[in-house]
Amino acid sequence: MNSNSSLFSIGNFNLKLNHLLIIGILSIAFSTSFLIRSQPADYGWELNEFDPFFNYRATQYIVDNGIDAYFQWNDELSWYPHGRDVSQSSQIMLHLTAATTYWIFGSGGSLYDFTILFPVIVGSLTGIAIFALVRVIGGTTAGLFAALFFSVSIPIIIRGQIGWFKSEPLGLFFGIITLYLFLSGLQSNNFKIAASKLILSGILLGFSFASWGGTQFFVIPIGLFIMTLPFFRNDNKFLFWSVPLFVISVLITAISFERPGIQFLTNIGGMGLIIATSILLILLTVKTLSNKNVTRNMLFCLLAICLISTSIFFLGSEFLPSASFRYLNAINPFLTTTDPLVDSVSEHATTTISQSFLFHSILMIFAGIGIWLILKNSKTKYSIKNEMVAFSLIIGLTGVYISSTFVRLEVFASLSVIILSSLGLSIIIKEFFLNKKETKKLKNSLIKFSFVFGMIILLIVPLVFPIQGNVFSISDNPPTIMNGGSIFQISTTDWLDSMEWIKNNTSEDAVIGAWWDYGYWIQTKADRASLADNSTLSTAIIKKIAELLLNSPEQGWQILRQMESDYFVIFVAGQRLAVDDNDRALYLLHGGGDESKKQWFMRIAEEPLAKYLHSDGVSGTDYFWNETLLGKMIPFTPLAYVNLQNNQQSPIYQPGFSPIYVKDIKFPIDGDGPLRLVYSSPSFDVGKGGKLIGVFVYEINQNYVPLN
User: Fold this and answer.
1) Per the omega criterion (within 30 degrees of 0), is the bond before 81 cis?
2) Total domain count for the chain?
3) What does each C-alpha distance from 314 to 163, 268, 319, 341 come to in angstroms?
4) 138 and 189 share one domain
5) Three-class SS of residue 400?
6) Distance of CA 468 to the CA centre of its chain
7) What is the pTM (predicted TM-score) of this model?
8) pLDDT digits (tens, 9 = 90+) for 62-119
């Protein structure tokens, strides 16, 4: 049966066989993405990571109190006693979209369950959106490849798993639809359709900015593409109104929200769009007024604009809009931060070459082939329009460049590689199957079969190998609250039980101190105020917490009293090894809890590491264990040091040796010290060979009398 033959008709629409093929492949892409993203649910039905807990609570506030109340909300559980203006410091569009879709599709179910599923559905639907985008650029075949590649992309999957109710999935969803509508609108011959698509794309890009600040990346390829349009298009009148219409829609939408807000007009994102549009209008004017040497005149004009802009930048940089380090670092990956708080966040780590190869694998090769093929600009009916070639190259190169800054931004490298490799593969396949001779049918069939088989193998191998580094194994991890963010791939209820204990055994107005990592869990699961949380709005408060942990118990107690904290929570991760001759359980710590983060506490508090740590930069010195509040709060003490390679033992630290710990509660519940251990989570009593996910709640002793 011919793929273009009609199966049946509905009005003016004819359903053809190729339509069923497209629907089937997109269904496979959606289902594959959904299933891979859902793997963490095997460990427990919980929100994943930290920010989703606040986003859920903010969405719950809208559902319970309405949108107007949300914009007036000062969250008293956050950053006690200061609170937090939520609408000024949050991803507003994420909360509004989730609440609105819950009202429409929730059907009376639990909002918590809805937000757990939300990123899986949105992320899987984004695969359909990228099909539409790449289809506009290079045709249906390329679009189908893009949808399939998107469904198994490691950087995209791990930042949109089940429970990942964070900003990236929705931001990417809006951003990719924006690109599709923008390019589609520019190619439309119908004035009304073009205007509608451009206005809607501008609105959705504004929504994208209000969902995730990282999507301001799209300003770079869009801005550069806008400046290239006069060189590829001759419909000057259309460009004169269409591009400004799009940009005005973006600006109006962006400033309508408190974040990014009116300042968007003067920051890098807003100014980038305004400058790109201004350059477009100047080039179009030059093009209209030029009778000959049009391209040369536009190039000279563009060069003059670049020189003038560069001069203004260097001579008047103090008058230019400022930007946060994260945005500057994204533009210039060679910048380095001196802020240890920024460095301590794992998603701010610089992408390594090995990570890039792991993330993109064989697609990097096909992306390179794609660049070569689209530059070749074959004169066949399968060639891509010049302006689409320009766009695909721009977004491809800028995505790879920007992603070299943070691991978190690898999602943009993935988009770039997916677009380029999809275009490359579609051109290869079309041109390969185009060359056939009736006199060599058998030979051609064998070649085609070998070609198809080889391509399938090349694309499947990265899905299976390496065994511990493919998309299935990397995404098969428990929700963070189930293992505390430790290195152990286990599921426990230690954190959930601890938060429940706090909720049921402390007064409603109790204030809980902890390292900022756990702030959102305390607010959402325990329903108690915290001193600091994952929004990191106050580096001064975070530094103060780091300082009190490294001060003496008496000084730390005084700071906690000044901060009006009633309790303090610490987290320790490790493993029980064996029992010694004295029937004492032996433990190996450094599993990703506060015992592993202490070096960051020291950097943030601007304390010398050598004072607290041995030469390995991990093991605590005697001073740390005997003189600091954190050392006293960790209910373990080093017993000896062991070389785990040859089992040599030493009573004192030696390079290459790891400390072995025994239990040692320094602040017992019935003691008269500055703190009292009032709760320890279940795995503190783990059996031999078990993993320790220890959450410890200390009550601040209000009656303590300092020794000095």
Assistant:
1) yes
2) 4
3) 46, 16, 10, 30
4) no
5) helix
6) 21
7) 0.90
8) 999 999 999 999 999 999 999 999 999 999 999 999 999 999 998 788 999 999 999 9
